[in-house]
Specification:
Oligomer: single chain
Order of helices and strands: EHHEHEEEHHEEEHEHHH
Number of strands: 9
Largest sheet: 8 strands, antiparallel, barrel
Structural class: alpha+beta
Strand order of the largest sheet: 1-5-4-3-2-6-7-8
CATH class of the largest domain: Mainly Beta
Length: 272
């Protein structure tokens, strides 16, 4: 199955501006929002239409040592209404706030999800992440997201503007973040993809006191709950006790022997 290419810009409002910004944008009428976005999209007329609001529940899976996190990829199960999809994304290119990712999407049933979890998603991991074949995958982060979508069309260019209000949840203990916010502008066709880098500098003018984001919501979740730090602390702790100390002692002994042999070699070489 050939992947689709996702090309989007992500913007995170500053904490003090988030509620004000999202409330302002969500409360605008279509005509008002069209006037606001006209300057940000650039010259030329475009139409804007409300696609609607939907509640998205995402669950992200990864290995214990966060291998997907490390390579900016994700294995996600998305629940919207009665529909469930398995989504796999791999990063193809990245610049400030601008992401291109290859995306594979599969419709699955509740029973298929149970079967996939029990086999560590083997049939998909073997194809898309063969280096991780045989590894265990578990739920790490879930995201509850209320998303408002607008469709923007100008001549042959189509964009989707998404206004997200979401909460990150640590799957291990159920701890949740405060309400967070994000704005995404996605190119829906090739002509829009060409224009996206041109539009990008103007986006921060629309969203004042904001910054570009290079992170997926999954990556934001891992960092928010310090899961990346927790793993390395655990690995260091395991190394510093029991077998880890034995290996460390062996390495130091071998290093000492090597230095002794090297010292003897230098002594012999120095003799006339």
């Amino acid at each position: 199955m050939k992947p689709t290419e996702e090309h989007e810009i992500k913007v995170v409002p500053a904490p003090g501006q988030q509620i004000k910004l999202l409330t302002s944008l969500r409360s605008k009428s279509t005509d008002e929002l069209q006037d606001t976005l006209q300057g940000f999209i650039g010259t030329g007329q475009f139409s804007i239409s409300l696609e609607g609001t939907k509640t998205i529940n995402d669950v992200y899976y990864d290995t214990e040592d966060l291998q997907l996190f490390e390579i900016h990829s994700l294995l996600r199960v998305r629940h919207v209404g009665d529909a469930t999809k398995l989504i796999i994304k791999t990063l193809t290119s990245q610049s400030a706030g601008e992401l291109k990712r290859a995306e594979h999407e599969f419709n699955i049933s509740a029973q298929e999800l149970k079967d996939l979890e029990s086999t560590n998603f083997k049939q998909y991991v073997d194809v898309h992440f063969p280096e991780l074949s045989g590894r265990s995958f578990s739920k790490l982060i879930s995201v509850r997201n209320d998303r408002l979508n607008y469709l923007l069309v100008r001549e042959t260019e189509s964009f989707r503007l998404s206004l997200d209000q979401f909460v990150l949840v640590n799957a291990a203990n159920g701890k949740a973040s405060n309400q967070l916010y994000e704005i995404e502008l996605e190119a829906l066709n090739a002509d829009a993809s060409v224009q996206l880098p041109i539009i990008k500098p103007n986006l921060l003018k629309l969203v004042k006191n904001s910054r570009f984001s290079n992170s997926s919501k999954y990556e934001r979740g891992v960092r928010h709950f310090h899961l990346d730090q927790a793993y390395w602390k655990q690995a260091l702790s395991a190394w510093s006790t029991g077998p880890g100390l034995n290996w460390l002692g062996l390495i130091l002994n071998l290093a000492g022997i090597a230095l002794t042999v090297f010292g003897l070699y230098l002594t012999i070489q120095a003799k006339p």
